[in-house]
Task: structure prediction
Amino acid sequence: MASKDEIHKIWAPPGGMWSPWVKPVLFSFTDAIYNVPPSRSVVFQKEWVPKTGSTAFVVDLPEEAGILWAMRTAELGYRPVPLYNALPFAIGDKLGDPSSRLTSTVHVEPILGALVRESTTLGRLKLSLNSPPAFLLDSDRRIAKTDILPGVFDNRSVCFITDFPSAAFLIEHGISKVVVVQGTTKFAPDLTPVLIAWQQGRIKIFRKLYQDTEPPAAVIVQKPSLLSRIWFRLSVVLGFHRGELGAFGEIVPASSG
Amino acid sequence: MSILPLAFGHAISPNEFQCIQQRMSLDFCKWDSQVGDISTLFPQPLLISRETWDHLKEMAEGLAAELNEAENELLHRPELLSLLGLPRPLRIEFTRGNHAALRPSAVRVLRFDFHYTNDGWRISEVNSDVPGGYTEASRFPEMVRPFFQNARTTGDPANEWAREILAAIGERGRVALLSAPGFLEDQQVTAFLSAELQAHNIDSRLLHDPSQLRWKDQVAFTLWNGNEVRVDAIVRFYQGEWLARLPDRNKWKPLFFGSRTLVVNPGTAVLSESKRFPLTWRKLSTTLTTWKSLMPECREPFESHWKSSDDWIVKAAFSNTGDEVHVRELINAKTWGSVCKSVESHPERWVVQRRFETVPITSDLGSLYPCIGVYTINGRACGIYGRASTGPIVNYSAYDAAVLIAGG
Result:
């Protein structure tokens, strides 16, 4: 198996336009993957995917689906840019037996496995250093799939505006449209400020429902009202959204219920 | 070197610096080196002389000793606690006299942010509660040093910290490192420190909620490999004011009061973390000579004409990474308006500090404003976290610069 440095260089090639944004955290764990899981299938319709040019993607899909979807667009000339911001497991478990790792709140290990597995294919594609980007997020990142009890590793995460290039940088490098590929009609609350900032910087935002056959739809991203932000915060604190991390400028500490 | 006490060295070549960046991110948990469009690891180190380092050490150690004494006095002066702008749950607990149940900490880390001005060194603040920057202060200078003949690092705060933990709990101890969920920039610190502990044969676990600790007879326990075991130390990398926002059921209070398990940093750290700490000085009997000579004048917002003057900066009592430090002339009118509104609504949560002008230093990117964060561990200075900013305020998007002792 390739070393973590080799795998990282495939996803973040030296001199690559988008390489600085590739989040390194998962790559520092690739040497702890002993068995690479087999690939799964992914829904993908290439008919609507624009020829490479002025479009970038934000792929906000669960677990490894984002990587699998982005690998299909990589065949069409788009550069996958992993922005996964979570630890797959506790750093102390890195060298131990994988079967004895702590239960985690978010399933990040499949993403790590897919990064390792797909690196061979990505390396073979010989994408240009300036290929337009497909930024990859895990749509499950904020939600705990298990109660946060003693012995559970809480690896929930959020994305921030600072995890992405600015609108000015995108425009300067020829990107004027961003298509968000996701499974739901609503944008994630931590992604919304990113899209608003881009929109304010004259980037056009489109939404594409992952399993839908319709082409991407242009959207105007609205800032959540003060009332809905207060309600969201209260509902998390009161446990209506147990184990959910908040967003839009603030992180709501988790409720252990 | 120029007559200034610090200067940038030459830039490391892009290929060689890329190797350093790769090692920092893949081996030493530096996972936030890209902030928006800025690559934060800076290829030019800040060079200081041996004399400058000795001077900084002396000042930092003086500040640490005085801070320790002032915190102890504050604990016994509940009437002064209201000056600190503490979150209500903490103020209530400290005022109740729960301090009697506070235990002395065997390990205390402070980081003093020094800035060089035309009037000499000044400090803007102390990072007293949860100082970070260990990997930038320890591994980054170590990797930059070989490119500068005869240069030396100022120390290895991460290694010093781990050694102090080892001395406190012994080999094969168990340490729980607690940070807030979702914040990778905090988790990278606990992950790095966890690896440092492992290098000293100390087992560790990362926790993200205080409710993952169980308390029996004021001793912390948690699940370790499926078994409930006693924790020998808790590393609290979770800001005091954030913990105080959690519901009681999350059991955060033992981290401040009554724990028989070692907590690093101790809960008392929140007292001097408050940017309003200087407002207590005139009522303290502790002599704060070093502080008074280095810290610019601080006032209650109603005691100065800060709104109409550029001579003052406005700081929230509790803020992190410069996110709530405001200067009128550096922000737009709308943002300044909302800052004014916040200060007027809750002046007790803010402080105004007389502005000082950091001397900019020439780099290949133009003039940068350096900030020299000197660590003390248990009162002894042991390294520097260097940052440099394009503007006078050092915040999350500042560059991380290795600080080296030139020609030492």
Summary: The longest strand of chain A covers residues 55-61. Chain A touches chain B at residues 4-5, 8, 14, 20-21, 23-25, 27-28, 85-87, 90-92, 100, 142, 148-154, 156-158, 161-162, 164-166, 168-169, 237, 245, 251, 253-256 (CB under 8 Å).
